[in-house]
Amino acid sequence: MSGNSWAREKLKGFSTKCPGLLRFYRRSREDVKRKQFATLQRENPVDEKLVVFESFWGKSYNCSPKAIYEGMLRDKRYDDYHFIWSFQDTQAHRQLLENPRTRLVQRNSKEYEMAFAKAKIWIYNMSVPEYMEPSKNQIYVETWHGTPLKRVGCDIIYESDCRRSRQETIAAFEKKGAKVDYLLSPSVFYDEVITSAFGLKKSGNEAAVVPTGYPRNDYLYHYSLDDLRQIKERLEIPENKKTLLYTPTWRENQYQSQGGFASHMEIDLNELFRILGNDYVLLYRAHHHISTYDWKQEWEGRVIDVTGVEDVNELYIISDMLITDYSSTMFDYGNLGRPMIFYMYDLEEYREKLRGFYFDVEELPGPIVKTTQELAQAILKLRETFVYDEKYQRFQKKFNTYEDGDATQRTLDLLLRGKDGNQ
């Protein structure tokens, strides 16, 4: 182990006992990196035809960065552009190199920092690293990664995150909000929430929020029957089974000292399948913050771990029903108009101690259940009685206002106009 790696591991160990030490180390490191990055920007002119992409800290090729990238490849107006993708594991994404105008960089490498220093356009879905500040000649597009039910950033009201204080979270989000040029919005509701969560009024940056829709959700309007068939074959899901997609979110009070969050299967699988019988397959997808979870391998064939499927859209379109709790997957899945169940076994604790909500959960277009038995009965009932009713339509209108399958096109048009509208 290198000296730097040893130091990082020691700091991780101290962090739970002395979080102030870790914060001091991080601030000092960020200050150094900020100065180094600013020097790179000064010494390297902006490449007007270069776009850099990253999704979920370089873990994945998915979400709106993927949709925008693939849209650029199809759009002749971008034929003379070049593209860089950042990944933690570049080898796992070498298929992107089949396009001669695309190259890959290792996240946090020198090449990574150079890519952001030179690229005209940054496409990101989790906020760029704190030390990176776009120059006046660069365009930073923050696609974000979901409409929130739970409070985010400057709107958090509880001291529930052991990694940082509420005030530190607010300060961090205000800095994030001040540097973005465009924040892509899927709805009128989101316009207001994201303005507040990123402190955009304080920074005078409210105009950064643009009504494009989420590029990633275009696929939900344009997928084919062949897509369905191929995905089910790849995941070995029998055609005669009903498919349930379970997408629980993460919880701040389940942070692990070694990093990441734990997740526990709060569904009694024995009870669930006793009631449902053999007609169902449950797909389990952990949140990207989750590093460990405990569903049992003996359920192979009936419970399938799909956390490794990079693009959650593939799971949406093959699923007959969504089971979630407080996850933003509910809003994306709503574009399909299919049944949803909200398994909120810890509703009171989550609402009153961990996060708090932006709206009353009674607006959700499906039953709220708290036990496995209630969940199973709701599944059986919705299978027989579900209709896309007025409540679901109100939900869709409020939370997916701008979604129509053309969000990527609107985003590409926006980028060609540039910040001054004259590019």
TrEMBL record:
<keyword id="KW-0472">Membrane</keyword>
<dbReference type="GO" id="GO:0005886">
    <property type="term" value="C:plasma membrane"/>
</dbReference>
<protein>
    <recommendedName>
        <fullName>Teichoic acid poly(glycerol phosphate) polymerase</fullName>
    </recommendedName>
</protein>
<keyword id="KW-0808">Transferase</keyword>
<dbReference type="InterPro" id="IPR051612">
    <property type="entry name" value="Teichoic_Acid_Biosynth"/>
</dbReference>
<dbReference type="Pfam" id="PF04464">
    <property type="entry name" value="Glyphos_transf"/>
</dbReference>
<comment type="similarity">
    <text>Belongs to the CDP-glycerol glycerophosphotransferase family.</text>
</comment>
<dbReference type="InterPro" id="IPR007554">
    <property type="entry name" value="Glycerophosphate_synth"/>
</dbReference>
<keyword id="KW-0777">Teichoic acid biosynthesis</keyword>
<dbReference type="InterPro" id="IPR043149">
    <property type="entry name" value="TagF_N"/>
</dbReference>
<keyword id="KW-1003">Cell membrane</keyword>
<dbReference type="GO" id="GO:0047355">
    <property type="term" value="F:CDP-glycerol glycerophosphotransferase activity"/>
</dbReference>
<dbReference type="GO" id="GO:0019350">
    <property type="term" value="P:teichoic acid biosynthetic process"/>
</dbReference>
<dbReference type="InterPro" id="IPR043148">
    <property type="entry name" value="TagF_C"/>
</dbReference>
